[in-house]
Design brief:
The complex is a heterodimer of chains A (295) and B (339). Chain A is mainly alpha-helical and 295 residues long. Chain A is 74% helix and 3% strand. The two termini of chain A are 46 Å apart. Chain B is globular. Classes of the chains: A mainly alpha (295), B mainly alpha (339).
Chain lengths: 295, 339
């Protein structure tokens, strides 16, 4: 018996190692390379041979106004859009869960946006928000405002980017919150109905607390994913006007591919990684406190 | 009862507003693809036959190759996305199966040994001995793996990581901002290319990268699906001395079919739409659809009919994917995967 268990156990490595090795080689090993390069001054155009410079690249980044600008833009886009996604997504999930008329029709439609390529969505948004030829300005001029330069005025451009993010990723929140709602036990709600507890309080005292762990996870995923945004911005505004809508990833891409300043770019992406880890940890710590209050 | 009706009405209102918000952009791009130029340049038009006379000219232009190569990116997107999806779902399912049915014990200390040897070894080899990047990395990888795997057998002190931690390790790859590994991967591919093996702008290079990109999803989702597959059949087969490999292919895979389909759809959507890696790792021959589309803006300007056709080509397959998943969601299949 013991022998068969031992022999059966060895096979687990055959199942595990291919996936493990590919992830290790393709995602983790480049990181080691980038980490080492981030402490060097190395550039391809014009060529500058590798030279160890310690934390100079990191110091440069932290004193660069453009870095803090992109940091601010990314944070505004991510926090505002995730807040909206969660509120709207949760509301839609509740509506679907309580079978509003036509729920089956909405289900597929509400899912759709998150499966479309962000570059396509951005391209469509560019048409829709066009100052002269776009439907939004068409409607606006119908109401007496004309030709608003949505994509060339910094604050409006950020607002458009937030709108696009909300359009595309609210379905993700809806999908998961709906699944969460469906997994809640019916008995509690039946009992609450019998006790004549009003719907609003049923939500506040039962549904919301019970879905809190899931909500925390959903918001966490959206925050982490949101910080990576590049494609939408790349197509919609190209980071402009100036660098007003440049996000962290786009900034790193521009540094890397327009200047080929490898050391600086690698240091930039590691700074970015550290920021994501800090934001993620701070968020989870805050979420823990909220959850403890409800528990 | 009155009160619930009120909420129902609010819910319906919100849903209808969202439905419009959701569908209008898609409707607009769909009709724009059939517009003649004049219906675009004179301000927005909305209804075919009323506002403008629909035409197929934009589609004809696109597929006749008149406006740049469309077939190339479409073909490379299809080939790369399907191959990488198949590979990553297959390998991911294997890993997920191992995680569900076997116990893994990884000592934290051996993981640390791996990191120290890998980072330190690479620094020393490339800085002091001036080895080329690919040779140094490959050497370090092999040495670090061998040392840490054998170290794991020793009775090391410190915490021991289990299956949950291994799963988390896979999923945590998604926390890294992709630019970190994308840019480094670009440099690495370039270095490997200098050593003779071309990976930049090739089928193999893209598939390798996207397989790794899809693996965290595959492992995570398939682990949840496989946990719901009953173990009794497998135990019976084990008693009959049927090998694990045959059990996996002939019993587990067929039983996990709904899960496999759902996971493939999700991974396919992610790979099909992926932009950053394709932007960095391709330059011409193997450009994928998202790269072609992102270039439409500057190359087409206000030729919205052409832009819309390009966007539609990328959108339609994903509409099919979303519909299939929506069906599965209705049958309650996906609710198991969030636990």
């Amino acid at each position: 018996m013991h022998q068969t268990a031992g022999r059966g156990d060895a096979i687990k490595h055959v199942f595990m190692w291919p996936a493990f090795l590919i992830v290790l080689v393709v995602t983790l090993f480049p990181l080691i390379y980038a980490l080492v390069v981030s402490f060097q001054a190395i550039r391809i155009v014009p060529p500058l041979p590798p030279r160890f410079v310690g934390v100079e690249n990191y110091a440069d980044i932290l004193s660069s106004a453009r870095f803090w600008g992109s940091m601010w833009t990314t944070s505004v886009i991510v926090f505002v859009s995730v807040a909206l996604q969660f509120v709207i997504g949760f509301a839609l999930a509740l509506a679907l869960h309580h079978n509003v008329p036509g729920a089956n029709l909405y289900r597929v439609t509400f899912l759709l946006p998150m499966f479309l390529a962000p570059v396509c969505v951005a391209l469509i948004a560019r048409m829709i928000f066009h100052p002269y030829l776009g439907p939004v300005n068409d409607a606006m001029s119908g109401m007496g405002f004309g030709n608003i330069p949505f994509l060339t005025e910094p604050n409006l451009a950020v607002a458009v980017l937030i709108t696009v993010e909300v359009w595309q990723w609210t379905p993700f929140v809806t999908l998961l919150m709906l699944a969460g709602l469906q997994s809640l036990p019916d008995e509690v709600f039946e009992a609450a109905k019998v006790d004549n507890i009003p719907a609003w309080r049923r939500f506040r005292d039962i549904t919301f607390p019970m879905l809190l762990p899931l909500s925390v996870a959903v918001i966490f995923i959206r925050l982490i994913e949101g910080f990576k945004v590049i494609d939408t911005v790349f197509v919609l505004t190209g980071g402009g006007p100036g660098t007003a809508t440049e996000t962290l990833t786009l900034f790193a891409y521009n540094e890397g591919f327009k200047k080929f300043n490898l050391g600086y770019t690698s240091a930039l992406s590691f700074t970015f990684l550290i920021i994501v880890i800090i934001v993620g940890t701070a968020y989870l710590a805050a979420a823990q406190r909220v959850m403890r209050r409800y528990a | 009862m009155m009160e619930t009706d009120g909420y129902k009405r609010i819910g319906l209102g919100v849903s209808l507003v969202w439905l419009f918000f959701c569908l209008f952009p898609l409707y607009f791009v769909a009709v724009t693809a059939f517009k003649p130029p004049i219906a675009v340049s004179q301000g927005p038009t909305y209804f075919p036959f009323v506002d403008f006379e629909p035409t197929l000219q934009a589609f004809r232009d696109a597929f006749s190759g008149l406006r740049g190569d469309f077939y190339g990116p479409i073909m490379s997107s299809i080939m790369v996305a399907t191959t990488a999806t198949a590979l990553s779902v297959f390998l991911g399912t294997m890993a997920a199966y191992a995680l569900v049915r076997f116990e893994f014990r990884v000592k934290l200390l051996s993981g640390l040994i791996f990191a120290v040897i890998a980072i330190g070894g690479f620094t020393v080899l490339s800085e002091v001995y001036e080895w080329t990047v690919p040779t140094a990395l490959a050497t370090v990888l092999v040495v670090a793996l061998v040392v840490s795997v054998s170290a794991n057998r020793l009775p090391l002190p410190g915490p021991v990581l289990g299956n949950r931690d291994v799963t988390f390790w896979f999923v945590s790859q998604r926390i890294f901002p992709p630019i970190v590994s994308a840019f480094a991967l670009f440099l690495l591919y370039a270095e490997v290319g200098r050593a003779g093996l071309t990976l930049l702008d090739t089928f193999g290079g893209l598939v390798l990268c996207y397989t790794a990109f899809g693996l965290p999803f595959s492992v995570w989702l398939m682990r949840d699906f496989l946990e719901t597959v009953p173990i009794e059949v497998e135990e019976a087969a084990l008693v009959d001395d049927i090998s694990r490999v045959r059990i996996f292919f002939q019993i587990v895979l067929p039983m996990a079919r709904p899960g496999l389909i759902a996971t493939s759809m999700i991974v396919l959507a992610f790979i099909w739409n992926e932009f950053l890696f394709a932007l960095l790792l391709t330059s011409g021959e193997w450009q994928t659809l998202p790269i072609l589309i992102s270039g439409q803006n500057s190359s087409r300007g206000d030729e919205w009919w052409a832009i819309s056709v390009a966007a539609l080509i990328a959108i339609v397959p994903m509409v099919i994917v979303a519909t299939i998943l929506g069906r599965m969601m209705r049958s309650g299949l996906l609710s198991g995967s969030i636990k």
